[in-house]
C-alpha cells in the first residue's frame, strides 16, 4: 500500500495523520490550527504533503446520519479543492461519520485528561479516518 496523508478538516482545526510506510497503521501527525485564510491553510497542508511524500491525500467527508451531505461537507469539498488545485497525486474522500466520537472513546479508554483530549482529538479523528479507509481498501 502507498503512503497516505489524511485530514479531518474542521472550521477551526485540521487533524492530520499519515500511514506508516507499509500502509498497515495510521500515525497521528498534528492538529493544525487554521489561520483564518483558506489559501494559507491549503498551502500548509501542501507543505506537509511535500514533507511526507504521500501518493494520496485523504479527506474526511462529513455526512449526516441518514447518509446525505450537509453544509459542512460542502465546506470540506471547497477547501479540499483548494489543496487539490496544487496537488498532482491521487486523492479520495472518506465517510467520517462518528470518527470524532470514536477518537474520543479511544482517548477516554486510555484515561487521557480532558485538557489533553481537547489538544489531540482532531489528529486522533484523522487517524480513525485513515485507519478506516485503509481497512476498507485492503486487498
Structure report:
With 139 residues, the protein is α/β, with parallel strands linked by helices. Helix content is 45%, strand content 24%. The protein has 4 helices and 5 strands; from the N terminus they run βββαβαβαα. It has a 5-stranded mixed β-sheet, with helices on both faces. β4, α2 and β5 form a beta-alpha-beta unit. α1 packs across α2 and α3 packs across α4. The radius of gyration is 14 Å and the shape is globular. The relative contact order is 0.23.
Task: Kindly list the characteristics that best describe this protein.
single chain; about 140 residues; alpha/beta; five-stranded mixed beta sheet; 4 helices; 5 strands; globular
Topology:
Blueprint: E1 4-9, E2 13-19, E3 26-33, H1 38-52, E4 56-61, H2 71-84, E5 90-95, H3 99-109, H4 114-136
Parallel strand pairs: 1-4, 4-5
Antiparallel strand pairs: 1-2, 2-3
Helix pairs in contact: 1-2, 3-4
Summarize the entry for a quick read.
Helix content is 45%, strand content 24%. It has 139 residues and is an alpha/beta fold.
Number of helices: 4
Report Rg: 14 Å
**Gap between N and C termini:** 9 Å
Oligomer: single chain
Order of helices and strands: EEEHEHEHH
Low-confidence spans: pLDDT under 50, at least 5 residues?
Answer: none
Mean residue pLDDT: 87
Number of strands: 5
Q: What does the overall shape look like?
A: globular
With strands numbered from the N-terminus, the spatial order across the biggest sheet is 3-2-1-4-5
Structural class: alpha/beta
The major pleated sheet works out as: 5 strands, mixed
How much of the residues is beta strand, in percent?
A: 15-25%
Q: What share of residues is helical?
A: 40-55%
